[in-house]
Amino acid sequence: MTVTQGFLDDEIFSIISDAAEKAGVRAFVIGGYVRDCFLGSPSKDIDIVVEGSGIALAEAVGEAVRSNVTVFKNFGTAMLRFRGVEVEFVGARRESYRRDSRKPIVEDGSIEDDQKRRDFTINAMAFSLQKEDFGALIDPFGGIRDLASGIIRTPLDPDTTYSDDPLRMIRAIRFATRLSTPEHPFCIVPESLESIRRNRDRISILSRERITEELNKMLLCARPSLGFRLLDETGLLEKILPQLSRLKGTETVDGKGHKENFSHTLEVVDNVAALERELIASGELTDHVFEDGQEVIRPRTEPNLWLRWAALLHDIGKPATKRYDPQAGWTFHGHEVVGARMIPKIFQAMKMPLNEKMKYVQKLVGLHLRPIALVTEEVTDSAVRRLLFDAGDDIDDLMVLCKADITSKNQKKVERLKRNFDIVKGKLVEVEAKDAIRNFKNPIRGEYVMETFGIPPGRPIGILQEHVKDAILDGVIENSFEAADRLMREKAAEMGLFPVAGQPVPEAATTPGETPSDTQGLPVKS
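Request: output the structure for the sequence above.
Response:
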């Protein structure tokens, strides 16, 4: 079969073809680029397999296009960039595996050998770059047929494919998730699913980093729930993320049951994906980034992976907090607090970053009930100020998560809650515009407290600062230094603390080192 749809019209392919002919080797485009061409979404990443030295051909092409070539000798690969396209070269090879490792024993091979070692038939297709059959499709395993049928299938016996490299089990699920659309769903063939179940213990030889990389890609798909259901059905989820597996199932006592939390969680993840996609398209979501030491606000253009993780883990504390009360029924009181405490251990086990990304997920899990609580209560300025203060710049993502968390089989209930939720969202915008509280800074600094009362660092300083902060957030006093200082001195007197002799009562509008923007006033609560 010769390709006629213009998939190889890019100049880079003819350049590679010329260089291969001069070098006396055969070259082929293989893998994801070929698959995505037939799906109508050719990518900017091109894999070239060479019957010969991939590094040598890369260097010849790099010289022809005047592009630097990066060589990875340990892997026998080389990479160059040409007009925004990343091209990777590797020599054709055959592989064999030891039982206790996913690192293969590699030997030089032919294009046929190389295709046999590929994970799935849809990723084993290749285009010839030889002059005599330029553009011919080489498809020994029927990948084009499987692509049209929406099938994920291994080129060889699945037990061999998955046992050799257990990461392919998770990749099979990830591809079924990524490639599926409502119009054209993809599924893993039954014999392959059974093989994954049989070989699931083999993932013990994989590094956590590689597993997490696949989960991250799965979470960034349009409907991540497809992947996590397959992970559960094949027994992989229990081995990868047992805390999520424990959300499964329901209990009934005295005729009262609770929501099936695993299904609910997956619905929330899908809801977050859809909501975020919609808000990115409308330009309503932004990200705070640092450029040259300055914080800059940019419109979000790509999904936030860590928002997806927060959605996946938002109810992770429910199994530990599940209780049955004869009057109230099933309760999960405090599950958001327990869940937030579980995040560091989960991130550590999954080899995910233990930095601000983890803290972001922990914050959203810990706060995810707060906006929902406001939906069912009278929305006061004080409650909104506290939510803005606690969420800070992550308030918009928190609101996405909370809206996604509104699920029920009772559609009228969902619609009512979403209407009320929109009222809360409007109140957030109103209070933020009026008070700018998300970047609140306490007018009373610790150094000022120590200087005023002549005390060393210690608990009284925190008590005074907290007292002032609470009064401002509750609207008891305005957000000015003068009001804060008066309140601080009143509270200090109650604690038996008095200004150092000769210390004047300040008249300045700001404390030393502060700027006027630090002390812009909030209106007194009426």
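The first strand starts at residue 26 and ends at 30.
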